Protein backbone atom coordinates (compact mmCIF):
# COMPACT_ATOMS: atom_id res chain seq x y z
CA UNK A 1 0.00 0.00 0.00
CA UNK A 2 1.32 3.48 -0.91
CA UNK A 3 2.51 5.48 2.08
CA UNK A 4 1.97 9.21 2.34
CA UNK A 5 4.55 11.73 3.39
CA UNK A 6 3.95 12.87 6.95
CA UNK A 7 3.58 16.59 7.56
CA UNK A 8 6.97 18.06 8.40
CA UNK A 9 8.97 15.19 6.92
CA UNK A 10 11.57 16.06 4.25
CA UNK A 11 10.37 16.12 0.64
CA UNK A 12 11.45 13.10 -1.37
CA UNK A 13 13.17 13.64 -4.72
CA UNK A 14 13.55 10.96 -7.36
CA UNK A 15 16.44 12.10 -9.56
CA UNK A 16 16.92 10.42 -12.96
CA UNK A 17 20.55 11.03 -13.88
CA UNK A 18 21.94 8.40 -16.25
CA UNK A 19 25.37 10.05 -16.19
CA UNK A 20 26.34 10.19 -12.53
CA UNK A 21 29.61 9.43 -10.71
CA UNK A 22 31.86 7.57 -11.27
CA UNK A 23 31.57 8.60 -14.92
CA UNK A 24 33.54 11.66 -16.05
CA UNK A 25 31.23 12.24 -19.04
CA UNK A 26 30.15 15.74 -19.94
CA UNK A 27 27.53 17.10 -17.55
CA UNK A 28 28.31 14.80 -14.62
CA UNK A 29 29.34 17.73 -12.42
CA UNK A 30 25.91 19.31 -12.85
CA UNK A 31 24.09 16.12 -11.86
CA UNK A 32 26.43 15.48 -8.95
CA UNK A 33 26.08 19.06 -7.70
CA UNK A 34 22.28 18.98 -8.02
CA UNK A 35 21.92 15.79 -5.98
CA UNK A 36 24.33 17.11 -3.35
CA UNK A 37 22.63 20.49 -3.09
CA UNK A 38 19.16 19.05 -2.59
CA UNK A 39 20.46 16.60 0.01
CA UNK A 40 22.24 19.41 1.85
CA UNK A 41 18.96 21.37 1.86
CA UNK A 42 17.22 18.54 3.67
CA UNK A 43 15.63 16.61 0.80
CA UNK A 44 15.49 12.82 0.82
CA UNK A 45 17.27 12.22 -2.51
CA UNK A 46 17.31 8.98 -4.50
CA UNK A 47 19.30 8.90 -7.73
CA UNK A 48 18.53 6.35 -10.41
CA UNK A 49 21.54 6.01 -12.69
CA UNK A 50 23.32 3.59 -15.02
CA UNK A 51 25.28 0.53 -13.88
CA UNK A 52 28.86 1.22 -12.84
CA UNK A 53 30.17 -1.32 -15.38
CA UNK A 54 28.63 0.70 -18.21
CA UNK A 55 31.12 3.47 -17.43
CA UNK A 56 34.08 1.28 -16.51
CA UNK A 57 33.81 -1.64 -18.94
CA UNK A 58 31.79 -0.41 -21.92
CA UNK A 59 32.53 3.27 -22.53
CA UNK A 60 35.70 3.54 -20.40
CA UNK A 61 34.74 6.98 -19.11
CA UNK A 62 35.08 7.16 -15.37
CA UNK A 63 36.86 8.91 -12.52
CA UNK A 64 36.88 6.75 -9.37
CA UNK A 65 37.47 9.80 -7.15
CA UNK A 66 34.12 11.35 -8.09
CA UNK A 67 32.01 8.80 -6.20
CA UNK A 68 33.49 9.90 -2.90
CA UNK A 69 32.24 13.46 -3.54
CA UNK A 70 28.57 12.45 -3.55
CA UNK A 71 26.71 13.63 -0.43
CA UNK A 72 26.49 10.75 2.10
CA UNK A 73 22.71 11.19 2.41
CA UNK A 74 22.12 10.62 -1.33
CA UNK A 75 20.84 7.14 -2.12
CA UNK A 76 22.21 5.87 -5.45
CA UNK A 77 20.41 3.05 -7.27
CA UNK A 78 22.02 1.60 -10.40
CA UNK A 79 19.53 0.32 -12.97
CA UNK A 80 20.61 -1.87 -15.88
CA UNK A 81 19.96 -1.54 -19.59
CA UNK A 82 20.56 -3.63 -22.69
CA UNK A 83 24.29 -3.28 -23.39
CA UNK A 84 24.41 -5.01 -26.78
CA UNK A 85 24.93 -1.73 -28.62
CA UNK A 86 28.13 -1.04 -26.66
CA UNK A 87 29.47 -4.59 -26.68
CA UNK A 88 32.97 -4.68 -28.25
CA UNK A 89 33.73 -8.38 -27.81
CA UNK A 90 32.74 -10.03 -31.10
CA UNK A 91 32.67 -13.40 -29.34
CA UNK A 92 29.54 -12.21 -27.54
CA UNK A 93 27.75 -11.23 -30.76
CA UNK A 94 24.82 -13.25 -32.04
CA UNK A 95 25.34 -15.11 -35.31
CA UNK A 96 23.00 -12.64 -37.03
CA UNK A 97 24.95 -9.61 -35.80
CA UNK A 98 28.36 -11.11 -36.50
CA UNK A 99 27.49 -12.14 -40.07
CA UNK A 100 25.18 -9.28 -41.08
CA UNK A 101 26.26 -6.26 -39.02
CA UNK A 102 24.72 -3.60 -41.30
CA UNK A 103 21.36 -5.38 -41.46
CA UNK A 104 21.49 -5.99 -37.72
CA UNK A 105 22.02 -2.29 -37.03
CA UNK A 106 19.17 -1.30 -39.38
CA UNK A 107 16.69 -3.73 -37.81
CA UNK A 108 17.79 -2.75 -34.32
CA UNK A 109 17.38 0.98 -35.05
CA UNK A 110 13.90 0.54 -36.54
CA UNK A 111 12.79 -1.59 -33.61
CA UNK A 112 14.15 0.95 -31.17
CA UNK A 113 12.48 3.89 -32.93
CA UNK A 114 9.06 2.29 -32.58
CA UNK A 115 9.36 2.63 -28.82
CA UNK A 116 11.74 5.56 -28.26
CA UNK A 117 14.22 7.07 -30.76
CA UNK A 118 17.44 6.87 -28.77
CA UNK A 119 20.13 4.21 -28.12
CA UNK A 120 19.35 4.37 -24.38
CA UNK A 121 15.71 3.40 -24.88
CA UNK A 122 16.24 0.05 -23.13
CA UNK A 123 16.86 1.92 -19.85
CA UNK A 124 13.30 3.26 -19.72
CA UNK A 125 11.37 0.14 -18.72
CA UNK A 126 13.71 -1.06 -15.96
CA UNK A 127 14.12 2.43 -14.50
CA UNK A 128 10.36 2.97 -14.45
CA UNK A 129 9.86 -0.44 -12.86
CA UNK A 130 12.42 0.29 -10.16
CA UNK A 131 10.92 3.72 -9.47
CA UNK A 132 7.43 2.26 -9.03
CA UNK A 133 8.71 -0.28 -6.50
CA UNK A 134 10.50 2.41 -4.52
CA UNK A 135 7.46 4.70 -4.68
CA UNK A 136 5.19 1.93 -3.39
CA UNK A 137 7.40 1.55 -0.33
CA UNK A 138 7.73 5.26 0.38
CA UNK A 139 6.10 7.94 -1.70
CA UNK A 140 8.19 10.39 -3.73
CA UNK A 141 7.01 14.00 -3.99
CA UNK A 142 8.81 15.04 -7.16
CA UNK A 143 10.74 13.63 -10.13
CA UNK A 144 13.70 15.50 -11.62
CA UNK A 145 15.18 14.19 -14.87
CA UNK A 146 18.36 15.43 -16.52
CA UNK A 147 19.25 14.82 -20.16
CA UNK A 148 21.06 13.55 -22.02
CA UNK A 149 20.23 10.76 -22.52
CA UNK A 150 16.65 11.83 -23.08
CA UNK A 151 15.34 8.40 -22.21
CA UNK A 152 15.33 9.94 -18.73
CA UNK A 153 12.71 12.44 -19.92
CA UNK A 154 10.50 9.69 -21.34
CA UNK A 155 10.86 7.75 -18.10
CA UNK A 156 9.91 10.84 -16.07
CA UNK A 157 6.81 11.37 -18.22
CA UNK A 158 5.71 7.75 -17.73
CA UNK A 159 6.43 7.88 -14.00
CA UNK A 160 4.53 11.13 -13.65
CA UNK A 161 1.44 9.48 -15.16
CA UNK A 162 1.70 6.27 -13.13
CA UNK A 163 2.82 7.79 -9.83
CA UNK A 164 0.65 10.92 -10.15
CA UNK A 165 3.37 13.29 -9.01
CA UNK A 166 4.97 16.23 -10.86
CA UNK A 167 8.19 15.99 -12.82
CA UNK A 168 10.79 18.57 -13.89
CA UNK A 169 13.12 18.39 -16.91
CA UNK A 170 16.70 19.65 -16.81
CA UNK A 171 18.11 20.20 -20.31
CA UNK A 172 21.81 20.27 -19.58
CA UNK A 173 22.14 19.48 -23.30
CA UNK A 174 19.80 19.96 -26.28
CA UNK A 175 17.70 17.09 -27.55
CA UNK A 176 16.64 18.31 -30.98
CA UNK A 177 18.95 21.28 -31.66
CA UNK A 178 22.53 20.76 -32.84
CA UNK A 179 24.48 23.14 -30.62
CA UNK A 180 27.44 23.29 -33.00
CA UNK A 181 25.59 24.00 -36.25
CA UNK A 182 22.52 25.88 -34.97
CA UNK A 183 20.30 23.51 -36.96
CA UNK A 184 17.71 20.93 -35.91
CA UNK A 185 18.98 17.37 -35.67
CA UNK A 186 15.96 15.50 -37.02
CA UNK A 187 13.59 15.67 -40.01
CA UNK A 188 10.00 16.83 -39.32
CA UNK A 189 8.49 13.32 -39.34
CA UNK A 190 10.92 11.84 -36.82
CA UNK A 191 9.15 10.49 -33.69
CA UNK A 192 11.55 12.45 -31.50
CA UNK A 193 9.45 15.59 -32.06
CA UNK A 194 6.30 13.95 -30.67
CA UNK A 195 8.23 12.77 -27.65
CA UNK A 196 9.78 16.15 -26.94
CA UNK A 197 6.45 17.94 -27.28
CA UNK A 198 4.79 15.37 -25.02
CA UNK A 199 7.32 15.55 -22.18
CA UNK A 200 7.49 19.35 -22.27
CA UNK A 201 3.70 19.66 -22.33
CA UNK A 202 3.23 17.85 -19.02
CA UNK A 203 6.34 19.01 -17.13
CA UNK A 204 5.97 21.23 -14.07
CA UNK A 205 9.12 23.12 -15.05
CA UNK A 206 11.66 22.90 -17.88
CA UNK A 207 15.17 24.08 -17.10
CA UNK A 208 17.99 25.12 -19.45
CA UNK A 209 21.66 26.01 -18.90
CA UNK A 210 21.46 29.41 -20.61
CA UNK A 211 18.98 31.94 -21.93
CA UNK A 212 19.72 31.20 -25.59
CA UNK A 213 18.58 27.61 -25.21
CA UNK A 214 15.54 28.62 -23.17
CA UNK A 215 14.51 31.11 -25.86
CA UNK A 216 14.91 28.60 -28.69
CA UNK A 217 12.69 26.07 -26.93
CA UNK A 218 10.18 28.72 -25.84
CA UNK A 219 9.77 29.74 -29.48
CA UNK A 220 9.29 26.14 -30.60
CA UNK A 221 6.98 25.21 -27.71
CA UNK A 222 5.22 28.49 -26.77
CA UNK A 223 2.53 26.69 -24.76
CA UNK A 224 5.19 25.90 -22.12
CA UNK A 225 7.22 29.13 -22.29
CA UNK A 226 5.99 30.32 -18.89
CA UNK A 227 7.34 27.13 -17.31
CA UNK A 228 10.80 27.42 -18.89
CA UNK A 229 13.61 28.77 -16.71
CA UNK A 230 17.39 29.01 -16.65
CA UNK A 231 19.66 27.33 -14.10
CA UNK A 232 23.24 28.13 -14.99
CA UNK A 233 26.12 25.79 -14.44
CA UNK A 234 28.57 26.84 -11.75
CA UNK A 235 31.72 25.91 -9.88
CA UNK A 236 32.29 23.85 -6.77
CA UNK A 237 34.48 25.37 -4.03
CA UNK A 238 34.87 21.93 -2.47
CA UNK A 239 36.40 20.58 -5.70
CA UNK A 240 38.45 23.60 -6.74
CA UNK A 241 39.76 24.31 -3.27
CA UNK A 242 41.61 27.52 -2.47
CA UNK A 243 43.81 28.58 -5.37
CA UNK A 244 46.76 30.52 -3.92
CA UNK A 245 47.21 34.05 -5.21
CA UNK A 246 50.56 34.07 -6.96
CA UNK A 247 51.92 37.09 -8.78
CA UNK A 248 53.95 36.38 -11.94
CA UNK A 249 57.71 36.30 -11.49
CA UNK A 250 59.24 38.99 -13.77
CA UNK A 251 62.23 36.72 -14.39
CA UNK A 252 60.10 33.77 -15.48
CA UNK A 253 58.32 33.19 -18.83
CA UNK A 254 54.56 33.56 -18.67
CA UNK A 255 52.58 30.34 -18.40
CA UNK A 256 49.34 30.12 -20.40
CA UNK A 257 47.17 27.08 -19.75
CA UNK A 258 44.01 25.17 -20.57
CA UNK A 259 42.38 22.87 -18.00
CA UNK A 260 39.52 20.67 -19.11
CA UNK A 261 38.61 17.93 -21.54
CA UNK A 262 39.98 18.58 -25.03
CA UNK A 263 37.31 17.64 -27.59
CA UNK A 264 37.34 17.20 -31.34
CA UNK A 265 34.93 20.08 -31.98
CA UNK A 266 37.12 22.65 -30.26
CA UNK A 267 38.89 25.20 -32.51
CA UNK A 268 42.33 23.72 -31.88
CA UNK A 269 43.79 24.90 -35.17
CA UNK A 270 42.79 28.49 -34.40
CA UNK A 271 44.35 28.21 -30.95
CA UNK A 272 47.69 26.98 -32.23
CA UNK A 273 47.80 29.32 -35.22
CA UNK A 274 47.17 32.17 -32.78
CA UNK A 275 49.88 30.88 -30.49
CA UNK A 276 52.39 30.75 -33.36
CA UNK A 277 51.66 34.40 -34.06
CA UNK A 278 51.79 35.35 -30.38
CA UNK A 279 55.19 33.75 -29.90
CA UNK A 280 56.60 36.15 -32.50
CA UNK A 281 55.76 39.06 -30.19
CA UNK A 282 58.63 40.01 -27.81
CA UNK A 283 56.57 39.70 -24.58
CA UNK A 284 55.62 36.11 -25.48
CA UNK A 285 58.75 34.89 -27.24
CA UNK A 286 59.51 32.42 -24.43
CA UNK A 287 55.95 31.91 -23.11
CA UNK A 288 54.58 28.43 -22.43
CA UNK A 289 51.20 26.91 -23.29
CA UNK A 290 50.24 23.94 -21.15
CA UNK A 291 47.25 21.68 -21.79
CA UNK A 292 45.82 19.75 -18.84
CA UNK A 293 43.01 17.19 -19.08
CA UNK A 294 41.77 14.18 -20.97
CA UNK A 295 41.90 14.04 -24.75
CA UNK A 296 38.19 13.43 -25.37
CA UNK A 297 35.62 11.72 -23.18
CA UNK A 298 36.33 8.29 -24.63
CA UNK A 299 39.62 6.41 -25.29
CA UNK A 300 39.27 6.38 -29.10
CA UNK A 301 39.26 10.18 -29.17
CA UNK A 302 42.86 10.52 -27.99
CA UNK A 303 44.34 9.02 -31.17
CA UNK A 304 42.54 11.63 -33.27
CA UNK A 305 43.29 14.58 -31.01
CA UNK A 306 46.97 14.09 -30.21
CA UNK A 307 48.21 14.78 -33.80
CA UNK A 308 46.37 18.13 -33.74
CA UNK A 309 48.56 19.39 -30.88
CA UNK A 310 51.92 20.77 -32.13
CA UNK A 311 54.08 19.12 -29.51
CA UNK A 312 57.02 18.63 -31.88
CA UNK A 313 57.28 22.28 -32.87
CA UNK A 314 59.42 24.62 -30.82
CA UNK A 315 56.41 26.54 -29.52
CA UNK A 316 56.52 25.86 -25.80
CA UNK A 317 53.35 23.75 -26.08
CA UNK A 318 53.10 20.76 -23.73
CA UNK A 319 50.40 18.23 -22.95
CA UNK A 320 50.39 17.53 -19.20
CA UNK A 321 47.66 14.88 -19.13
CA UNK A 322 44.69 14.60 -16.74
CA UNK A 323 44.86 16.35 -13.38
CA UNK A 324 43.71 14.43 -10.28
CA UNK A 325 40.93 16.22 -8.40
CA UNK A 326 43.21 16.91 -5.44
CA UNK A 327 45.74 18.68 -7.69
CA UNK A 328 43.43 20.96 -9.70
CA UNK A 329 44.06 23.93 -7.43
CA UNK A 330 47.83 23.42 -7.69
CA UNK A 331 47.69 23.27 -11.49
CA UNK A 332 45.74 26.53 -11.65
CA UNK A 333 48.13 28.21 -9.21
CA UNK A 334 51.12 27.49 -11.46
CA UNK A 335 49.52 29.20 -14.47
CA UNK A 336 49.50 32.93 -15.14
CA UNK A 337 46.83 33.17 -17.86
CA UNK A 338 43.97 30.78 -18.64
CA UNK A 339 42.88 29.94 -22.18
CA UNK A 340 39.13 29.45 -22.43
CA UNK A 341 38.81 27.16 -25.44
CA UNK A 342 35.26 26.28 -26.45
CA UNK A 343 33.34 25.08 -29.49
CA UNK A 344 29.96 25.96 -30.94
CA UNK A 345 27.97 29.12 -31.44
CA UNK A 346 25.33 30.97 -29.38
CA UNK A 347 23.96 28.02 -27.39
CA UNK A 348 27.22 26.93 -25.69
CA UNK A 349 28.11 27.98 -22.15
CA UNK A 350 30.63 25.32 -20.97
CA UNK A 351 30.94 24.43 -17.32
CA UNK A 352 34.67 25.17 -17.20
CA UNK A 353 34.27 28.93 -17.59
CA UNK A 354 32.87 29.22 -14.05
CA UNK A 355 35.87 27.49 -12.53
CA UNK A 356 38.21 29.65 -14.59
CA UNK A 357 36.67 32.81 -13.15
CA UNK A 358 36.91 31.41 -9.63
CA UNK A 359 40.72 31.40 -9.89
CA UNK A 360 40.77 35.18 -10.38
CA UNK A 361 43.28 34.83 -13.22
CA UNK A 362 43.28 36.59 -16.60
CA UNK A 363 41.22 34.68 -19.17
CA UNK A 364 41.77 34.75 -22.94
CA UNK A 365 38.78 33.67 -25.04
CA UNK A 366 39.38 31.29 -27.93
CA UNK A 367 35.84 30.70 -29.17
CA UNK A 368 33.12 32.20 -31.28
CA UNK A 369 32.15 35.46 -29.51
CA UNK A 370 28.46 34.62 -29.90
CA UNK A 371 28.47 31.67 -27.51
CA UNK A 372 26.39 31.97 -24.35
CA UNK A 373 29.51 31.86 -22.18
CA UNK A 374 30.21 35.48 -23.12
CA UNK A 375 27.20 36.53 -21.03
CA UNK A 376 28.77 34.84 -18.03
CA UNK A 377 32.18 36.40 -18.66
CA UNK A 378 30.76 39.87 -19.17
CA UNK A 379 31.75 41.88 -16.14
CA UNK A 380 34.72 39.67 -15.26
CA UNK A 381 37.49 42.28 -14.85
CA UNK A 382 40.32 40.14 -16.29
CA UNK A 383 38.60 38.88 -19.43
CA UNK A 384 40.33 39.31 -22.81
CA UNK A 385 37.76 38.71 -25.52
CA UNK A 386 37.88 38.65 -29.33
CA UNK A 387 35.38 40.22 -31.75
CA UNK A 388 35.85 37.28 -34.12
CA UNK A 389 37.49 33.88 -33.88
CA UNK A 390 40.51 34.76 -36.02
CA UNK A 391 44.17 33.93 -35.22
CA UNK A 392 45.37 37.53 -35.47
CA UNK A 393 42.64 38.73 -33.11
CA UNK A 394 43.30 35.92 -30.62
CA UNK A 395 47.00 36.80 -30.78
CA UNK A 396 46.15 40.40 -29.89
CA UNK A 397 44.09 39.19 -26.91
CA UNK A 398 46.99 37.01 -25.75
CA UNK A 399 49.44 39.91 -25.99
CA UNK A 400 47.04 42.21 -24.10
CA UNK A 401 46.55 39.57 -21.40
CA UNK A 402 50.31 39.16 -21.07
CA UNK A 403 50.81 42.91 -20.62
CA UNK A 404 48.04 43.09 -18.01
CA UNK A 405 49.40 40.06 -16.18
CA UNK A 406 52.82 41.62 -15.77
CA UNK A 407 51.15 44.55 -13.93
CA UNK A 408 48.60 42.44 -12.04
CA UNK A 409 47.83 43.30 -8.41
CA UNK A 410 46.36 41.17 -5.64
CA UNK A 411 43.36 43.51 -5.44
CA UNK A 412 42.58 42.83 -9.12
CA UNK A 413 42.65 39.10 -8.42
CA UNK A 414 40.32 39.50 -5.44
CA UNK A 415 37.91 41.61 -7.50
CA UNK A 416 37.81 38.91 -10.18
CA UNK A 417 37.08 36.29 -7.54
CA UNK A 418 34.27 38.38 -6.11
CA UNK A 419 32.65 38.35 -9.54
CA UNK A 420 32.93 34.56 -9.62
CA UNK A 421 31.29 33.99 -6.22
CA UNK A 422 27.84 34.64 -7.66
CA UNK A 423 28.30 31.48 -9.75
CA UNK A 424 29.03 28.87 -7.10
CA UNK A 425 26.80 25.81 -7.48
CA UNK A 426 24.97 26.65 -4.27
CA UNK A 427 24.32 30.22 -5.45
CA UNK A 428 22.83 29.14 -8.79
CA UNK A 429 20.93 26.14 -7.39
CA UNK A 430 19.34 27.87 -4.38
CA UNK A 431 16.44 29.53 -6.28
CA UNK A 432 15.86 26.30 -8.23
CA UNK A 433 15.66 24.25 -5.02
CA UNK A 434 13.19 26.71 -3.52
CA UNK A 435 10.93 26.54 -6.59
CA UNK A 436 10.99 22.75 -6.58
CA UNK A 437 10.21 22.65 -2.88
CA UNK A 438 7.07 24.65 -3.62
CA UNK A 439 6.18 22.22 -6.46
CA UNK A 440 6.72 19.23 -4.19
CA UNK A 441 4.54 20.68 -1.45
CA UNK A 442 1.93 21.85 -3.96
UniProtKB/TrEMBL annotation:
GO terms for molecular function: glycosyltransferase activity. InterPro entries: Glyco_trans_4-like_N (IPR028098). The keyword Transferase applies. It comes from the Bacteria. The keyword Transferase applies. Signal peptide: none annotated. Residues 31-234 form the Glycosyltransferase subfamily 4-like N-terminal domain. Pfam families: Glyco_trans_1_4, Glyco_trans_4_4. Gene3D superfamilies: Glycogen Phosphorylase B (3.40.50.2000). Keywords: Glycosyltransferase, Transferase. This is D-inositol 3-phosphate glycosyltransferase. It comes from Carbonactinospora thermoautotrophica. The lineage of its organism: Bacteria, Bacillati, Actinomycetota, Actinomycetes, Kitasatosporales.
Amino acid sequence: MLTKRRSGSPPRLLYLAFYFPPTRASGVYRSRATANHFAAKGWDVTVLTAPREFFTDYIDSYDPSLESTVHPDVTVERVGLNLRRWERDIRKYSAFRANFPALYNTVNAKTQDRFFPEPYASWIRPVVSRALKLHAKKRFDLILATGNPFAAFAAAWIMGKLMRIPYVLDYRDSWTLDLFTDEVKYPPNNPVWKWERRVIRDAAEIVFVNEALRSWHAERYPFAADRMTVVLNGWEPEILGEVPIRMPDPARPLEFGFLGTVTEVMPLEVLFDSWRLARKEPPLADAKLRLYGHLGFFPQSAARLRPRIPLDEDLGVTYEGPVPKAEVSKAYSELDILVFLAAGVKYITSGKVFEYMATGKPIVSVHDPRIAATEVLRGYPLWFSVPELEPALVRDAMVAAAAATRDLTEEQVRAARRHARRFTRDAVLDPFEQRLRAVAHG
